Amino acid sequence: MVWTPPRTWATGELVTASIANTHWRDEFLALSQARGFLFVIGDTNGGVINTGLKGFFMVPYTCDVTGWTLLGDAVGSIVIDVWRDTYANFPPTVADTITGSEKPTLTAQIKNQDLSLGTWNRTVNAGDVLAFNVDSAATVKQASLILSAELS
């Protein structure tokens, strides 16, 4: 289900099953299936983020990643790769990347997002482990990566 803007109702309008299904049932389902993950990366000494593996997150439900939003603490540059593997194969490595050619990136920016993910391997299963690796960084001391997802 995909969220659509709320309907503007007219006085005296007859509510049909089609209208109710589209604007009540479907919107409720879209909202109830929306999910996301937040991963914060920062240097504990307050310096610029360095490259390398920054941590892991175990996904609690099967879902499809639908987009990413990256927020920095200042205008700067950072590239983050996201790796996924099963718990049995922990830890994920660069061979397990899911980002394709659309890695979460700031390039002389404070915020950026990609909501289409045409090259991502988007399906994540319950119990999979995500790893977050900084490929490069400059100026940014803290970054928040939000992965948007829908239940599948």
If you had to describe this structure to a student in words, what would you say it looks like?
There is one protein chain. By secondary structure, this protein is mainly beta. It has one domain: Jelly Rolls (Sandwich), CATH 2.60.120. It is 11% helix and 47% strand. The protein contains one helix and seven strands. It has one helix at residues 17-33; strands at residues 34-42, 52-58, 63-85, 105-114, 123-124, 129-138, 142-151. The mean pLDDT is 88.
List the keywords.
seven-stranded antiparallel β-sheet; Jelly Rolls; 11% helix; 152 residues; mainly beta
Q: How are the secondary structure elements laid out?
A:
Blueprint: H1 17-33, E1 34-42, E2 52-58, E3 63-85, E4 105-114, E5 123-124, E6 129-138, E7 142-151
Strand content: over 45%
Which CATH-level-2 architecture? Sandwich
Number of domains: 1
Q: Number of helical runs?
A: 1
CATH topology: Jelly Rolls
Secondary structural class: mainly beta
